[in-house]
């Protein structure tokens, strides 16, 4: 009886330690093989490879319906799948955080044994894919890509040419690399990640929205017997932390890194159950998640008057440091956009489009500690003459016309507006409150307007396109009756001439 009690205890203990897999069910899972899921940050789109058509891995997409709590019938991605031969296997899809780019790999029509390709979303369809080319792809194996939330870093696995090791289950070993996007938009020369990430047998990297937390599979001493999933964090000193094994889900068989949602609390993986590979998810305990969670801001960008979608550019800046963190575009065919940023900072999101005034909004995430989704539709107004647009966060030294660096991010929006619309000219005006003598305020405002204009000229805008003018205290927006009102009246504006 004593030994039976010990057996029961051990059984319960081991069961409690095992990963708790949750099938996402039909119609995503089928009697065929489903593998390598790629989940969108909001858990509403999943792209995966399946052998359900002719026994060959092709890519499929399914949408989650929050009302019915079910996934849609998977859609065959014809523009991608049919670009290659019918017998060509397509592997390792990775959906960009904005939902507009789909990266994957295949061994046909490329430069080597395996190449990375990309397709862009066009409305509800995906475009014909293009090969990322050199220096990402080589004559060897380059595959299983993962792109960062800002779109500036691409992680992937490449042949480990100095090592012919295999895992216990016979899987080949690779090294993990990262490439950074250059100012001209091209991918830079890939860099091999240093130890303790690369130890000779790594696979399938996944970079989180913070740009610092990396999940990957590895075959190394101290694991459970084959590939295990690890987490490593890039420190402020530029060094990766000693990888932490995800022991809540690692097993003694090959564990491959899955796709992680925006909340970083769920990993979608493929698992073989009842002799068939299907897609499951497993909840990630807090101690295995990134240090910060994320905010997902999504919606549509449309014309204020017509309500029709607009092709727009999106810029995300740190509200405190004014650093530009993300630059991306929306889906021009339906206007949709998605931005993913870590909590712990306040952000300014600016949307601009040719022929329209820009629109900015603040996202206050410094004090937020839990995952949050924000639905925010954005409307843009067409450019029109004589409409005055106040500029936020334009700062000068006290009683001075010297422009502070904190002002640059706002004036850069005017620069971008004029670059996108080379046919327009503007009046750039400065205004004061009623304190001080009239003549002095007029001179000060004139100089402040000139100072702001000079900054814009320094960015390559022709001087004939801007008229700078100071109005002193002659055009208050509100009565100069309180300190708050006076602050409103101290401003810089522009209008189309």
Your description of this structure?
- With 497 residues, the protein is mainly β.
- The strands form eight sheets. Strands 2, 3, 4, 5 and 6 form a five-stranded antiparallel sheet that branches. Strands 7, 8, 9, 10 and 11 form a five-stranded antiparallel sheet that branches.
- The chain is elongated.
- The protein has three domains: 16-288, Neuraminidase (6 Propeller), CATH 2.120.10; 292-382, Immunoglobulin-like (Sandwich), CATH 2.60.40; 385-497, OmpA-like domain (60s Ribosomal Protein L30, Chain: A, 2-Layer Sandwich).
- The model is unreliable at 1-18 (pLDDT under 50).
- Helices cover 12% and strands 36% of the residues.
- The chain contains five helices and 34 strands.
- It has helices at residues 2-17, 78-81, 408-420, 438-457, 483-489, and strands at 22-23, 34-39, 45-50, 58-65, 70-71, 75-76, 90-95, 101-106, 115-122, 125-126, 130-131, 142-147, 153-159, 174-180, 191-192, 202-207, 213-218, 228-233, 244-245, 259-260, 266-273, 276-283, 294-303, 313-318, 324-329, 336-342, 346-352, 359-364, 372-375, 378-380, 388-391, 426-431, 466-470, 491-496.
Topology, pairings included?
Blueprint: H1 2-17, E1 22-23, E2 34-39, E3 45-50, E4 58-65, E5 70-71, E6 75-76, H2 78-81, E7 90-95, E8 101-106, E9 115-122, E10 125-126, E11 130-131, E12 142-147, E13 153-159, E14 174-180, E15 191-192, E16 202-207, E17 213-218, E18 228-233, E19 244-245, E20 259-260, E21 266-273, E22 276-283, E23 294-303, E24 313-318, E25 324-329, E26 336-342, E27 346-352, E28 359-364, E29 372-375, E30 378-380, E31 388-391, H3 408-420, E32 426-431, H4 438-457, E33 466-470, H5 483-489, E34 491-496
Parallel strand pairs: 23-29, 23-30, 32-33
Antiparallel strand pairs: 1-22, 2-3, 3-4, 4-5, 4-6, 7-8, 8-9, 9-10, 9-11, 12-13, 13-14, 14-15, 16-17, 17-18, 18-19, 20-21, 21-22, 23-26, 24-25, 24-27, 27-28, 31-34, 32-34
